[in-house]
Write a structure and sequence with these properties.
alpha/beta; Rossmann fold; eight-stranded mixed β-sheet; 8 strands; about 40% helix; about 10% strand; globular; membrane; 3-oxoacyl-[acyl-carrier protein] reductase; 3-oxoacyl-[acyl-carrier-protein] reductase (NADPH) activity; NAD(P)-bd_dom_sf; SDR_fam
Length: about 325
Amino acid sequence: MADVTRRRMLTAGAIGAAGLAAAVTGKTQANTQQPVAPKAGEANQRNKLGRLNGQVALFTGAARGIGRAIAIALAKEGADVALVDIASQIPSVEYPMATPENLAETLRLVQAEGSRAVSIKADVRRGDQMKSAAERAIKELGKIDILIPNAGICTYVASLDRMSEAEWDDVIAVNLTGVARTMQAVIPHMRQRKQGRIIVVNSTNSRFGSPGSPSYNASKWGVLGLVKCAATEVAKDNITVNAINPTGVRTMMTQNDAARRWANPANPTQENLEKALMEFNPLPISFLQPEQVANSLLFFAMPEAAHITGEAMDVAAGANVRWNS
């Protein structure tokens, strides 16, 4: 009973942050759909008056979940966007990942807001594909002002000693190496322009340990260190690097049978999964909605955040009261 309770109390972080993955197999080559500019007069007034009007954002994990919410939030503020995603399945991941149809729908929703957009299928683990994605975004949209590494996956396992190599390697490759590859592809462009905002979607799992997700926890702690290191390296070029750490978010990563079994192995129901999050979050909610994460993330892109860097903001429904760093 004590072990089950402990799992419930620590569930939220590991099944929390990060959009669905933007990684494909090593043989896959980056490919894109042509951007479509809004027709004259179609851009809505909200887009024209947005606080990010004229800016361009590139982000990963864009096909659905947090990524789609980010796309719409940016477009509502007037930004043009480059949407990068896997639109394919990684074999070690138990839940269904994004599809080409998901990516196409995100593109449609962004265009409906009056923003220009280009969708790009690329592997965040592959430096060459991420560089090609960045080059395409710059060619089609003119520049990259905002970079949001958002792609992430999670595998739910019994313990570290009972997980497969793929369950470790794939999560580290997407969640940590993928963030680094995404930054490496865009930072030179930002350095040349002497400006940029990098905002990483991380997780509350970068704040504590929890059983059953060792690769996810390790990747998220690693991302936090990477954010703080990169922030020191690019600060002189007027580039900020920050992260947000959500608690559990209602995406396919958390709403699946593997997550239910992990939260309560004895009785893996949706009701018990919701209860576990309610116990973890002091505020009276279970999972955050993707839109709540996206709206919080926007702060780091705004003028008021120009002098904030190396920071990690917990969007944790109060769960963050349990740690002090």
